[in-house]
Amino acid sequence: MSDERPRAQAPDGLELRHLRAFLAVAEELNFGRAAARLYVSPSTLSRQVAALERTLGCVLLRRSTQHVALTLAGQALLDRLPAVLDDIDDVVETVRSVGGELAARIRRLGEPFAELTFDDVDALRAASERHYALLPIVPEVAFTPVVARGVPGLVAEPPDPGDSWTLLLHGGNYTNGSAFGFRSLASGLADATGCRVLTPDYRLAPEHPFPAAVDDVCAAYTWLIDQGASPDEIVPVGDGSGAGLVLSLLLRLKERGGPLPARCVLFTPFIDLGAAVPEALPATPAPSGTRRGMALGIARYLDGRPVDDPLVDPLHADLSGLPPMLVQAAAAHEGLPDAERLTEHARSCKVDVRLEIYPVDAESFQLYWSFLPEAAAAIAQVGAYVRAANSLEARTPGWPTSYQEEPTTGEPSA
Fold first, then answer.
1. Tens of pLDDT along 173-189?
2. What CATH number is associated with residue 71?
């Protein structure tokens, strides 16, 4: 019989985000730099490290107003923690690669229009609507048709909504998609944010090229103000090309001196339209789900408008003065560079922006909140972000503490 004492188990309350918080501080030996690295406030980071110390029952860091130092226990944790976190990340990646049922389900959902092209817009629109119809709707959310200053749309209303609104601009490469088709995402957002969601049926190309969609989105935004919402109570959310429309809306409001909303959310923004110039269009039609395939639809939307016009390409626009942005992107999708370039450009214009990258390969992965964990986590983050925007704390510069304290389930990237 062995005299060896049983090995102590890790406490049940141990959280990965607290371990990552400690690692950042231990490597930087500065709460300000570590907080900037993780996109949280120094006070939030301090609370996370303190929570880890309480869980482990020992002091890990010695703090003063000018100095941070590791204790012996902190050094012991730092010596082993990077390898432990790497192992955990490897385990998660392996499990995901072996159990790819969710990715396969998304691929099956997209099969009806995966090989369609923008040469046949009617077929593409019909197939995309059949795709959206397979996605569930939160049963507690009610839908009401409205006409917002001449623009038809749907309002998704959760039980006991407040005065705030989300303005959802659907994706579809400016040529397909609808308020009806995006009811699932609208209901998920309404449930997560606790506020009404207006999804306008803005006009689509090629029948209605630029600037028809921008005009309609501006009309819908003005309609929300007509209903008594203040700009501080409106958060535009855009998916794919809808994210491009959010930025077009903000830039037009800025140009005309209109009231800007409190902040905005962009799902894998499609904003680099360079492939739509005539000399870059593919000689043969490409599948609509690829950036190459989208070029034809974008060209029809632009209808001769220069691709570097700031109103349609925010990468060539002065973004200074725009509200804070939450950008969510899929790590394994070809649209990720757009999100990264937008984030870099927005920061260079002094815009407060946060980029969250999720380990998925579907551009509009938030549509699959009902069965994809990363999508559910992303929608929860948006809910926390919008609720924070509607609090008094949102009136002050920077990221609201109430949002920062939400667990960041998608790994943010600079």
1. 899 999 999 999 999 99
2. 1.10.10.10
Q: What are 360-396's pLDDT values in tens digits?
A: 877 889 999 988 888 999 999 999 898 877 653 443 3
- Do residues 108 and 52 share a domain? no
What is the rounded end-to-end Cα distance, in angstroms, of the chain? 54
Residues 343 and 201 in one domain: yes
Last residue of a domain, one of 98, 117, 151: 98
Name the burial class of residue 67, with classes exposed (0-12), middle (13-18) and buried (19+) by CB atoms within 10 angstroms of its CB: exposed
**Residue in the block written with tokens 């606790």:** 194
Full-model pTM: 0.73
111 residue type, one letter = E
What is the percent of the chain with per-residue pLDDT over 90, rounded to a whole number? 52
CA 292/CA 295 separation, integer angstroms? 5
| Exposure class string for 224-243: b at 16+ Cβ within 10 A, else e | bbeeebeebbbbbbbbbbbb
SS3 of 396, please?
Answer: coil
- Note the pLDDT of residue 201: 98
Confidence class for position 103, pLDDT limits 50, 70, 90: low
122/247 same-domain check: yes
> Please, are residues 358 and 329 in contact by the beta-carbon 8 Å criterion?
yes
* Spatial CB neighbours of 94, under 8 Å, sequence gap ≥ 6: none
- Tens digits of per-residue pLDDT, 122-153? 988 998 898 888 899 999 999 999 999 999 99
Q: Which domain holds residue 195?
A: 103-412
pLDDT reported for residue 243: 95
Q: How many other CB atoms are there within 10 angstroms of residue 33's CB atom?
A: 13
Would you give the distance in Å from CA 222 to the centre of its chain? 24
Instruction: Judge if 274 and 361 occupy the same domain.
Output: yes
CA distance 392 to 402: 11
Residue that is last in its domain, among 98, 125, 144:
98
Task: Round to whole Å and give the CA distance between 186 and 103.
Answer: 22
